[in-house]
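User: Show me a protein chain along with its predicted structure.
Assistant: Here is one chain, sequence first, then structure tokens.
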Amino acid sequence: MSTENRTRSPLGPLPRRSSWLAGGTLASLALVMVGVASPAVATAQNVQAAETVRAAQEAGGGSDCTTSNKKKQSPRAAEEAQAGPRGGDNCQGQRGPTGPTGPRGPRGRDGEDGATGATGATGATGATGTSFCVDIDSVRDNNDREFKAVNPGDGNTYAGIRELSNGGATVGPWTWYDLSTNPDGDYPPDACGVSIGHQANRLVIEVVTQGGEIWETFCTVQPGPGTLTCNGVWNLDVPQPDAGDPDIRRATAAPPVRPMDPNHLPKTLK
């Protein structure tokens, strides 16, 4: 019978040569033993691997506290994680209470004063405006001439004259003389009220200033029609009115005398 048709051993094919018998038999037995013990060996290996993973996680090297948190953390959470572990469910401890406020720092240096702005130049004085003092006075003491003085509101004082005829029924044009143009005349620039008087061919024109002073000047009436000679020199009246001048108010009136009843006799006659 050939070797191919022989009943094969349950331990596997036997070697054809006797020199392989011992080694082949031992190899087959080893294989059988390995197959029988493989479930227990695998279980032991799984237990050992699980213990190794658990120990690594407890030491802080697991993915739950390191890898996954780094991927899901916000920028602020990453900064807090760098500051140190805080424990808790996410491997970070609770935030501690706020520390006390530190002492106030020293006062800073005072700033420098700003530069002073340039002062603008003063503008030129404007022209004198129109005065609000307007006044007029006149005199006609005969039937051949009329005289007038006026402050028309332009800051000047004028004297005027005109001829009359037919008993004053016919009047001629006015001739005006500016009494405030003499540079040496001391004309008061704030003259306001004005008056005029005439006597023996001589005119007196007076003004009162806004400050209450009285000034006067004179003109001479010439024989020719509508002619005056005025020097335009103004003089301050002396003295000026003063609060100390005599009081001309009435004294306290005596009680009225009661009329006597004619039917009543004095006590001395009773």
